[in-house]
């Protein structure tokens, strides 16, 4: 039985484009810390190729671990989170729920690189929702709430806990509301 976190291949292609946007939006956090290392940017390019149909799902799944960044080596937490955003995006051919992981790590990267983490994370979530197509919103609505389904990355674990879980919960709240007011400053 297929996990509800997988999404159809068509929906994975749709959310891959949005996740690539989210990851690319914070790549500077990585590139400033590790000049000349193109691995996260290459992962984003691979995600975009999948979104455009230039890379099939089987090839994307085979290559999902290739070209990643061993983030334990990084000394800058925001750079590590930005690299993880790109890695989550590159995993979308395998399972669509990784799109929310990419967005969460991108928001975390923004927060870690800012003087006021909460404001920066909120602003990044607003940016992400504002740059989400109606088709991506529809596809992401199919995913189970973070922490409730064990058969994928949104299950109990890393993406469901702490700041990442809060970010994904906020994104899912905005998606479910189908209302951009959740992205406006209160």
Query: What form results from the Cα inertia axes?
Result: globular
Total beta strands: 0
Q: Give the distance, in angstroms, between the N- and C-terminal Cα atoms.
A: 42 Å
- Count of spatially separate domains: 1
Percentage of residues in strands: under 5%
Helix count, per DSSP?
9
- Poorly predicted regions are none
State the share of residues found in helices, binned by percent: 55-70%
The profile of the biggest β sheet is: none
Gyration radius from CA atoms, angstroms? 15 Å
Structural class: mainly alpha
SSE arrangement, N to C: HHHHHHHHH
Name the average pLDDT.
90
Architecture blueprint of SSEs:
Blueprint (H helix, E strand, L loop, with lengths): L8 H17 L1 H7 L5 H13 L5 H6 L14 H14 L7 H15 L4 H14 L3 H7 L21 H16 L9
Helix pairs in contact: 1-3, 1-5, 1-6, 1-8, 2-5, 3-5, 5-6, 6-7, 6-9, 7-9
What are the key terms here?
single chain; 186 residues; mainly alpha
Describe the overall structure.
- The protein has helices at 9-25, 27-33, 39-51, 57-62, 77-90, 98-112, 117-130, 134-140, 162-177.
- The protein is mainly α and 186 residues long.
- The chain has one domain (9-183).
- The longest helix has 17 residues, at 9-25.
- The N and C termini lie far apart (42 Å).
- The mean pLDDT is 90.
Short characterization:
59% of the residues lie in helices and 0% in strands.
